[in-house]
Amino acid sequence: CFQKMFQKKEIALLASLAYVNAGYRIVNVYVRMAVGEYSAMLFLPIAALAVYRIYTDSGASRKRCRSNALLLAAGMTGLIGTHVLTTEMTCFFLLLVCILLWKKTLQKQVLKTYLYAVLETVILNLYFIVPFVDYYFHVDVNIRHSMDEGAMMIQKNGAQIGEYFAFFQNIFGSHMGLTPGLVLMTALIAAAVLVINRQASGQIRFYTGLSVCLLFLASRNFPWDYLSAHAAAGRMLAQIQFPWRFLSLAVVVLSMLLGSMFQQLYHVGQPQMYKKLLLLTAGACAAMSVFYASDYVDAGGMIHYYDTAEVNTYATGSLYIRTGSNQQILTGAITGDDHMAEISSVSRSGSHMELFCRAKEDADGSVEVPFFHYKGYRVKDEQGREYEISDGYNNVVRFTVPAGYAGKFTVDFVQPWYWKAGAWVSLGYAVCLVIRGMAARRKKRGV
């Protein structure tokens, strides 16, 4: 992505090195172990390249607009498939860019490109969007409940400005090393000097301002609490819980800023200084990665599991858990009331379970299985009869066994037809894009 922005391999490698070794990314991988967030950081440069092309391709052809739209859709698809909160922040970031560059945004070609990108993003992600929206509006989960509760006071969770310059703090300490890192923050300071001295290009000025805005958003100085209390949009953005999550976006822009500065230095015509600074910056990146590795070896803890009996799947994220559920007391046991004579597990694989149940003759019995009750679960007996499901204790799946009945029951999760339809549309469109891309490549080669 950086190669296509800066057109020089060494600058692209340096920007990539700075991005990969950025302090906040290292913290996400090795300290927070935030698999969703650091996976999303794989796709942020793709979205950044798309936006860069949209605003720098002057007089782009219809084919080029479609290509840029598909690139942005690809980046957003990666974000949607990895981390919803980063997707939300990126949409806000795109809105900010559109406003700052409003003159170019209102050009016909740019508007068409964004329209194509939105349509392609929706089509490629129907497999996710359809069930996500379905659950959001029809299942009472924590994230929906928190929106209904009102303002979320997250300002205190933001980073302190001083932390951005604390390059050598213990990343396993209370502040985790919430900084883009030595190289990127030094680049920002150098860029600010160029801007003040009126020696910066338009791109450098823009990236500098955008970086400052993102760092401000990530800090506790931004009025998060006020916006959350007085605006619905602020309440929605407050779902990110920790303002410093915006550092993931700041790291991308700062890497672009670093590349733009070296690009300007190269065009100024100072090859010796250009080469020396390249080597110095690359060395600084390597040195910081060694520092982080040393910190990790010294302070990073290890968890050992010696037997599968110690392993469970109960420590899942809480945003999409049913409201009022307690994950800590989910033991994995099948239980029944006093009217059940016998309950035994036959087999289990993922969300599919088979069990034998026998109810006493005097009254209907009820059985609870250790699955949180979400829309889509189904219970059937050996004859194929379907049984109604209700919320059991701790919101698990509960069903009724008729008095005197004995037999095998199957509990499994079945996607609604419209979920499957959305998935097939996404898959079909992705296949069409692959075929179209292969055909275009063969045509280009003259095959």
Q: What would you note in describing this structure?
A:
This protein is α+β, with helices and mostly antiparallel strands and 447 residues long. The chain is built from 18 helices and nine strands. The strands form two sheets. Strands 2-3-9-5-6 form a five-stranded antiparallel beta sheet, with no helix packed on it. Strands 1-4-8-7 form a four-stranded antiparallel beta sheet, with no helix packed on it. Helix 2 (9-20) runs parallel beside helix 17 and helix 12 crosses helix 16 (247-268).
Short description:
The chain is α+β, with helices and mostly antiparallel strands and 447 residues long.
Share of residues in helices: 55-70%
Strand ordering within the main sheet: 2-3-9-5-6
Shape: elongated
Number of helical regions: 18
Question: Structural class from helices and strands?
Answer: alpha+beta
Could you tell me how far the N terminus lies from the C terminus, measured between alpha carbons in angstroms?
28 Å
String of helices and strands: HHHHHHHHHHHHHHHHHEEEEEEEEEH
The count of β-strands is 9
* Unreliable stretches covering 5 or more consecutive residues: none
Whole-number average pLDDT? 91
Largest sheet: 5 strands, antiparallel
- Backbone CA Rg: 27 Å
